[in-house]
Amino acid sequence: MTAVGIDAMEIWTGKLKLDLAETFAPAQGDDPGKYTKGLGLRASSFPDVYEDIVTMGANAAHRLMERKGLTPEDIGRIDVATESAFDNSKPVSTYIAGCLEQVYDENFHHANKGERKFACISGTQSLDDAYNWIRAGRNRGRAALVIATDTALYARDDPGEATQGAGAVAMLVDEDPNLVELSTEQGYGSADETDFLKPNQQFPSVDGKRSVNVYLARMREALEDFAEVAGDIHPGDYEMIPFHTPFPGMVRKAAALGYRHIIRGTDVGDLMAEEIGHQPMRADFETDDEFHAAIKEYTDALTETERYQDWYANTIEPTLAISREVGNWYTGSVHIARAAGLKHARESGLDLDEARLLVASYGSGAQAEVHAETIVPGWEEEIGALNIDEQIRNRYDLSFAEYEQVHDVHNHETETDVEEFTAPEDEFAFDGWGRMGERKYRYVE
Ligand SMILES: CC(C)(COP(=O)([O-])OP(=O)([O-])OC[C@H]1O[C@@H](n2cnc3c(N)ncnc32)[C@H](O)[C@@H]1OP(=O)([O-])[O-])[C@@H](O)C(=O)NCCC(=O)NCCSC(=O)C[C@@](C)(O)CC(=O)[O-]
Description:
Layout: E1 4-13, E2 16-19, H1 20-28, H2 33-39, E3 43-46, H3 53-67, E4 75-81, H4 92-101, E5 112-116, H5 122-135, E6 143-152, E7 165-175, E8 180-190, E9 196-197, E10 205-206, H6 208-230, H7 248-262, H8 267-276, H9 288-304, H10 306-315, H11 321-326, H12 333-347, E11 356-363, E12 367-375, H13 379-384, H14 388-393, E13 396-397, H15 400-410, E14 427-433, E15 439-444
InterPro entries: HMG-CoA_Synthase-like, HMG_CoA_synt_C_dom, HMG_CoA_synth_N, Thiolase-like
Protein name: Hydroxymethylglutaryl-CoA synthase
GO molecular function, one term: hydroxymethylglutaryl-CoA synthase activity
């Protein structure tokens, strides 16, 4: 069977930065440790006044097409995943195609375009759609462009404000990929949940604490479902595990739960039992409360072991490096986690040809999905082409007063006229409103 997967990717961060420890925490009267240690975040990315989901997505896609020497005729599909759409009918992919057509002689009239919605997991679902389209033999030799783009803003003074972010990831899905091959096996954990939603409103209604528990519950189901189809998982099977990362502290919790689950019945589980005892079993406790207290105590002990900490340092920690600097990108989040892990591997000189990743996606509402990926030769060159470090370094560092202005600029309910903080160069920029209320864009040389 021909390999199908991600051939190349590009990342585009919003060009403004809110420093959480230095700027946000003091203004909120919070200890900076809540952000840097508790949530695990240093900063959030924000879009400048001329940036939005279309410009960020189009800029990431343009860089990708230029680097791979592609023209519109090479692309048979443009799938956009977002939960920040501003139009209930016309998909963001048409706006992005319109932008790209400004800079290419050819057009995308023969490309199938769409928009996927299921909170953050729709980025991975769009990858699936592209994968299935190619596997079904409907692609006529053409590749799919999958773009995950979001401005993850919360209402002012919502607890979620600490986890905001903005950016886009563009991925080229093709046969014989140069980055990762996707597995056919997938596991799902999906349930009708009311923890994070946007019922016809821009900013989410969030029950933050509950959303954390729902994430963990659905992720556990997805892991179990994946093991049903792919067989038992051993902690040594996967080089890294990129998770959906709303903030690194969430992944810290999910990783401990996942590890506890996958070591059961393995040699690692036996060694752990010698060190900290066996995992508590429900049958040994009279009440749920007693059982949960024992599980918590066991998990705390487990995360203190050297064995767990080594696994975490190699398998999880590298995937969090970009998220720490940019915050939650919703649909793009798990894809920057994969990129961060591979970037770390390349910089550390690791040979990962044919090594495996376990990719754990999640979207509120709620659904988790787990699948495996095989890293393919060529990955180092692809990852080496990313300039995300430079983009992160070059962001404009907002004062708190400027942050308040930028939040208002991107709030659909407020009208604010604020000067741009950076100057667009060789990129798409928002260019005002059209006669039917549509957004207009131009390429700025
Ligand atoms: C996540 C919350 C609820 C946190 O909200 P909060 O109540 O402001 O924060 P907290 O008081 O719970 O503190 C956060 C952590 O920092 C610690 N802490 C506190 N102070 C200090 C200190 N001085 N030094 C060191 N640590 C400190 C504190 O102990 C805690 O760690 P934990 O106990 O949880 O391990 C909030 O930010 C929120 O509502 N976020 C939005 C929802 C969210 O991100 N949920 C995550 C799961 S759902 C998901 O991932 C889906 C999503 C959000 O991406 C959307 C989608 O799918 O579309």
